[in-house]
Amino acid sequence: MINPLLIHIEKICSIKINETDLFDSFFEHKIYKKKEFLLIEGQQCFEKFFIIKGCVHLFFLRENGTEQTIDFALENWWASDFNAFSGGGITQFSIRTTENTEVLCISAENQNKLLRQIPEMNLYFHLVFQRAYAASQMRVRYLYEYSKEELYQHFLFDFPEFTQRVPQYLLASFLGFTPEYLSEIRKKYLS
Amino acid sequence: MINPLLIHIEKICSIKINETDLFDSFFEHKIYKKKEFLLIEGQQCFEKFFIIKGCVHLFFLRENGTEQTIDFALENWWASDFNAFSGGGITQFSIRTTENTEVLCISAENQNKLLRQIPEMNLYFHLVFQRAYAASQMRVRYLYEYSKEELYQHFLFDFPEFTQRVPQYLLASFLGFTPEYLSEIRKKYLS
To answer: The Cyclic nucleotide-binding domain covers which part of the protein (chains A, B) (predicted)?
Structure first.
């Protein structure tokens, strides 16, 4: 069940990891139903998750008790609270599936062992995080540059399938809209 | 002149790079005066910069011609448009010094050679980008969670020296304030 990750590694950095038995011993294959939690805000975070199939959202609880979604992860993305993961600390985010989801999960402890045994994996993680950080630079630019409606247009243009796939109330939360406002501008752009 | 980077590498991932002569051949030591450009929006980006001494800000030009600062980098941070750097593409950001600044600069081509010759450097970059991405997760949370005034309070609390060091009009731009508004709340918190 490790294949999707091996394929992703080869795609990102042209490394063939052949030691699949070894590899298997570091990762755990987990299956979650829709709306199950991978991580709960306020608990310790020891793991990070590679999405094989499905979708998750990352959110935090506002003081008024509403959930604020700040990110999504689909197939071939890694999800975690990386601050907490790297230090074994308390997470400031929850992660929950938005559909039935399969992941490969690795603990910080197992990752350290993996990196010692297969150091080439550092090239993979270097490039994965560089890409994620580059995406976050562009995202911050968009947050400063665009109105809410323009943000939605960009999102629709850059990730058309995704916009259909995630629950609309979560997309509204992510974009900082009320669900009613999102529904209004959806009608405008889809008509 | 490579020492500050070697010290940072040892601090981040406990690796001692002894091959300093080799190392020197990949990096270029550059000195910039205050307000000089390291990178100009719209040009190709082939390099990334390790700040030895000084400070830079990353910004883009709004349609109305004003500069929007979205990030700063001080000593021991890496700065670039990482999307453009990784693909040799056109940068969507400018980088300019806010004080006299010394950097170590490496081209994408030299980085590829470096990683082949000293593959341990991938562990360093893996951890550096993980840290940068983790910081951007928290930053996005703050952008959703806090009012402008609360953002300033957090910034003042988390980075007190920094708040004194960068020009106030750039800090205002970064925080999404007018300079007048920043001056008003500065008076309030510093009195």
So the answer is: 31-117
Burial of B112 (0-12, 13-18, 19+ CB in 10 A): exposed
Place of tokens 């448009």: B81
Whether residue B127 and residue A86 make contact (CB cut-off 8 A), yes or no, is yes
- The ipTM (two decimal places) reads 0.93
Q: How many helices (H) and strands (E) does chain B have?
A: 9, 8
Distance CA B141, CA B167 (A): 25
Q: What is the pLDDT of residues A113-134, one digit of tens each?
A: 999 999 999 999 999 999 999 9
**Contact across the interface for B141 and A70, Cβ inside 8 Å:** yes
Residues on chain B touching A133 (C-beta within 8 angstroms) = 82, 129, 132-133, 136
Q: Note the pLDDT of residue B2.
A: 59
Residues of B in contact with A148 (CB under 8 A): none
Give B60's contacts in chain A (Cβ within 8 Å). 141, 145
Q: Do B133 and A132 touch (CB under 8 A)?
A: yes
Which residues, at least 6 apart from A84, have a Cβ–Cβ distance to it below 8 Å? A44, A45, A90, A91, A92
For the stretch A81-118, pLDDT in tens is: 999 999 889 999 999 999 999 999 999 999 999 999 99
Query: pTM for the complete prediction?
Result: 0.93
- Interatomic CA distance for residues A157 and A151, integer angstroms: 10
**What's residue A163's pLDDT?**
84
Q: Where are the alpha helices (DSSP H) in chain B?
A: 3-13, 20-24, 82-87, 108-117, 121-145, 148-158, 160-165, 168-175, 179-190
Q: Using CA atoms, how far apart are residues A166 and B30, in angstroms rounded to an integer?
A: 47
CA distance, residue A34 to nearest chain B CA (Å): 24
Q: What is the pLDDT of residues B42-74, one digit of tens each?
A: 999 999 999 999 999 999 999 889 999 999 999
Search chain A and give the residue with CA nearest B60. A141
The pLDDT tens digits of the residues spanning A22-49 come to 788 899 999 999 999 999 999 999 999 9
* Residue A149, CA distances (Å) to A7, A20, A71, A153, A156 in order: 37, 46, 18, 6, 11
Please, which residues bridge with residue A59 across strands? A69, A94
Of B82, B135, B144, the CB nearest to A130: B82
